Amino acid sequence: MSSQLIGIIGVVLLVILLFTRMWVAMTMFVIGFAGCWILSGFNTALSVIGTVPYSQSMNYTMACLPLFVLMGVVLAKSGLGGDLYNFASKILGRIQGGLAMATVLACAFFAAVCGDSVTTAVTMGKVSYPEMKRHNYSERIATGCIVAGGTIGVLIPPSICFIIYGLITQQSIGALFMAGMIPGILQAVFYILTIFIVCKTKPNTAPAGMPVPIKEKVRSAKTVWPVLVIFVLIMYGMYGGWFTPTEGGAFGAFVAIVISFINRRLTPKTWYETLKEAALNTAMIYFLIVSCYVFLRFMALSELPAAFSRFVTRLNTEHNVPGFVIMTAIVVMYIVLGCFIDVMAAILLTISILYPVVLNLGYSPIWFGVIVVRLMEIGMVTPPFGLNLFAIAKTTKAPMGTVYRGVIPFLAADVVHIALLIAVPQLSLWLPGMM
Prior knowledge:
Blueprint: H1 3-19, H2 24-40, H3 42-57, H4 64-77, H5 80-92, H6 98-111, H7 117-134, H8 139-150, H9 160-169, H10 173-179, H11 181-201, H12 214-221, H13 225-239, H14 245-262, H15 268-302, H16 304-317, H17 323-338, H18 343-360, H19 365-381, H20 387-396, H21 400-423, H22 426-434
Helix pairs in contact: 1-2, 1-15, 2-3, 2-15, 3-15, 4-14, 4-15, 5-6, 5-12, 6-7, 6-8, 6-11, 7-8, 7-20, 8-11, 8-20, 8-21, 9-19, 10-22, 11-21, 13-14, 15-18, 16-18, 17-18, 17-19, 18-19, 19-21
């Protein structure tokens, strides 16, 4: 049996196990170990699982993960989400569908300091859903805007998903952060336009609110200054070369903790819960990354990625298949996979095979990182197994069918948005090019 055939069998087995809802990290770790054992012997396999966890966890860049996770959890626990929603609702509440638009806007602001999709969605769901229900918003638009808005949390930097992609592909995390800025802002704009169109076609979906005095708007703005301070300092520090992403994470976590204690938002009890949640999330992400590296070592030994890359390159050069057709096929594949399995697992599974293909086709790895993260977002809201769908159904107690139907208009906006990002790569590459 050839090494490439063994690699294919390993990939197929992994997909089957993921479809059965097996634990992603453990599945990748076990199959990676078994594959290395078959291809290079038991001693080599032991060496891989003995050295990879240590070498990756001791990677300096990996240190930014727990720091950004801690910063996001601190600000989530400090009640900042409620302040952001209150500010956005004061600005947009008078417009028809304004509270739903305010939810998206608050998600975009919160994304600037959080970096996680589910955390953003759950935080906003707790504060915005009761308010929208009180103003007679339909459950569909109320849950749909929260589910979709939460995904902005992994596109606008700092983003945990960008960090994971950068670690696996050895790309600059600072450049990836910059690349996500414009697409993230456009995503929020697309969602707000979607809400506007839905409200115009179905006026009963969401009523208009009462006008808010200027004084109240100014008063509500005073509570959101921590977001602006932290975001501007981190991004300007990395953009200006003052510090690395790891140092930026440390700085952001420190400032978030100081501000939360100054505002008396963190009690000893919530501080303990914050540290516990940050530690659990970090451990989960670390195990996922280590398992991915073990599986990538198996893929390298099988030579499957190189063979697949040569095959696709021949399609492009010898059979004149355009690069954008191949790229479109990759996007469609991820969207379909996201309907049935965790899209993060799907991307970690395939990145070793598809990343060389994208490079050989002449695409920018930074641009591909934006596309990959955007596909992660779509997978989190795609029925029937999108993680955000379950999180919001549990948080709001809304029926699962209602949540499914509510997110459909936003999925249409996602398709248009990712088509635009593919058609105009400079939307993602302009800011990194200015660094």
